[in-house]
Specification:
This protein has 111 residues and is mostly helical. Helix content is 44%, strand content 0%.
């Protein structure tokens, strides 16, 4: 992880790492679940269909959203949470960028 802020550990024993939880496979890394979540998000937020985005990028970003919702529920606007690096790596391993470049965590903007 490029910044100290992103070097967050889930603080579990290696055999109990949060990235190995079965929920990761069923609700966060499953492509069908992610696709349905993207469609629902667009409908709820009344967002027009976006141009076809690179599949792994779209899945990666939705997986980050799914994880945050699973662990923290709905967050207020501008409230961002750092995702443990073990989870970020698992998501990136499942949905890699073709260039190997990733944006990383950005702090929320207060409104």
């Amino acid at each position: 992880m490029p910044t100290d802020l992103e070097k967050l550990c889930c603080r579990q024993r290696p055999d109990q790492c949060i990235s190995l939880d079965p929920t990761m496979d069923t609700n966060i890394l499953d492509e069908v679940v992610l696709s349905i979540a993207r469609v629902a998000r667009r409908e709820i937020r009344n967002i027009d269909m976006l141009p076809e985005e690179e599949a792994n990028k779209a899945n990666r970003h939705q997986a980050y959203r799914q994880y945050v919702y699973w662990r923290h529920q709905r967050l207020a606007r501008g409230d961002r949470r750092v995702i443990p690096s073990c989870v970020v790596w698992r998501i990136r391993e499942t949905f890699p960028s073709p260039t190997g470049q990733y944006k990383g965590f950005e702090l929320g903007v207060e409104i």
